[in-house]
Amino acid sequence: MAQDTTVPKLNFEYWLDKAVEWGQATTLESQKDVCLHLAQLQEFLHQLYETIKHLGPTVAIQQFPLIGQLLGRLCWNPFVIGYDESQKTLMWCLCCLYSSEPQNAVELKANSWIRSLLCHLLSSSKWEGNEAETSTFVSALGYTSADYYCHLVKNMVISLVTELRENQCNGLNIQESISASRVNAISIFCVPLITLPDLTPLLETLLLYHGGSSKEILSSEFLEAVNEAFLKKKISLPESAVFSLWLRHLQSLEKATLHLLDQLFSIPLNSLEEVARVIKDSLLPQAASHPAIFRIVNDIFKNALMETDGTPEVMTIIQVFTQLFLQAYQNENKQYKFPLKAYFPYHHQPLVRSLVRRPFELSTTYWSQHVKHISDMLKAIVEDTNVSSLTDLFEIWFLVACFGEWLDIAAEQLLKAAVEPDPVLWLLAFYYCPKNENQQRTQTMVEAQAVCDHLMTLFSCRDLSLKDLEAAVHRVTGVEQCCNQQLTTHLLTNFLLFSSGGQKIAQECIHHITEITDTSKEVYNLLIRTAYRFNHSGEENQRTVKLMNELLQKFTLKV
C-alpha cells in the first residue's frame, strides 16, 4: 500500500522515463530538455531523499524497486550533477541505499556499485583540467574544470560539516538524526579523496562525530585511509581528531606506534634531542594522556623490548617516550586529568607516584632520599611471596625501567657517596639482574660494592692512568654473567664522567672496555641519556657536559 500512495505522489515513473530519454545529454535537444527540467528535478530528488532517509536500504528498495536505475542514470548526466545542489542530493540518496552491514551477495554488490558512483561524482580526474569531462554549460560560462569542481567540493564540505555538527548537537531528536548507515556511507565516499586539502574539515568532523550507536559507524576503510595519510604526512589534522581516530580504531593506533618505532630505528641515534623530536611529532605522547591509548602503546613497546632481547636503544626510546608522556600529562587541565591509577592500574600506587616525579622537580639534596624510598618500596614488593611468576616480575621491572632517569641518578649518587649504599645497590642489582633470587642478588650487590669501594678511593684523585682502574676494568672484562657486566660498566662509566681524574682518561678507558667486551651499546646509550638529562635539567657541570659531547662525537656506533 505504501508503494501505491508514495510513488505517484513523487512522479517516480515520470522522472525515470526522462532519465532514460536524456541519457548522458549528448544531443542539443536532450540538453535543452534537461535544462528546462533541472529545477523540478532537483525538487523531486529532494522529496525522494526526504522520503527514503529514514527507511533504511531494504525498505527504500522495496518501495522504489527501480531507484537504482534512476539514480545511476542521473549520476552520469553532466547537466544534472552540475546544477545547484543536485549532485549533493544524489549523493545523499545513494548514501541512504548503502548497507552498513551487508547480509548477502546482493547487498555487497549494491554497496560496490554505490561506491563506484560516489567516486565518479567526485573523481580525481575532475581536478586535472580535462575539458572533455567538463559540463558544456560550465565551459560556456568561462569556468575551467579545476575552478568549478574546487568550489563544488568546498561547498559540499561546508554543507556536510554543518549538517553533521547540527545533528551532533541535536542527537536526542530522533527525527532529525542522521542514520548510522548514511554516516558510514559518507565516510566511504571520502576514502578516494582523503588527501584533498578542502576535505580536511569533513575528515575532522567525521572523526569527532559520535552517533547513538554502540558500534563504530565510520567505515574501517575510511579510518585506515586517514591514518595512512596522516602517518605519511599527506594530510594535517588537529590533535583532537587524531586522538579520536586512534581511540575508535585501535588498529590505526597500533600501526602508528609501529611506524614510530620504524622511524626511530632508521635514524642515527646521535642524540636524544632528535629522538624526542620524532616521538613528539608523532603525537603519540600527547595522545597517551588518554589511559586507553597509553596502555596500548606501552604494551607495544613492551613487546618490542622482548622481541629485541632488551636492547639498550629500545629501552632508551621507551624512557624518552615516558618522559614526553609525563610532560603532556602534567600539562593537562586538572579538570580533565585522569588519575595515575588509570595508566598503571595493576601496580603499587605509592611506587608509581614516586617514579613519575621528575628529578628536576626535586632539589638535588633530596635525590638520595627519593632513590632510597623507591628502592625500599620496590624491594618490599619484589620479595613479597605473592610475586611468584616471572611475568609478575617482568611487569614490575618494566615499570621501573620506563623511569630510567632515577636509575642513572642512583648510580651517580652511589659513587659520590651521597646516599646509603645498600638500597641503591639493591635497586641497581634488581634492574640489571631481575631474575636473580635473593641469594644471587645479594652476591651481585657484594661484587658491585667492591667495584664502588675501589672507584671511590680514586674519586678525588686528579691524575689517574688506565692501570689505576685495572681492578674495576677487570671486573667488567672478566665477569661471566652479562647483567653483572652491565652493572659494573654503568658504575665505571659514571666514574669516568663525574670524577676529575676519570675525565682525563675517559676516552682511553671506554675504548679499551668496548674493544674487548660487548658493552658498546650500553655505554653509548648511557652517554646520550646523561647528556639529554643534563641538557633538560639545568644541572651545571660544564666540564662533564663538554666531555660527554666529545665522547659522543668520537664514539662511532651503528645502532
From TrEMBL:
Query: Which top-rank group of organisms is this from?
Result: Eukaryota
Q: Name one GO biological process term.
A: interstrand cross-link repair
- GO cellular component terms, semicolon-separated: Fanconi anaemia nuclear complex
Looking up InterPro entries in the UniProt record yields: FANCC (IPR000686)
Its recorded name reads FANCC protein
Tell me the lineage of the source organism.
Eukaryota, Metazoa, Chordata, Craniata, Vertebrata
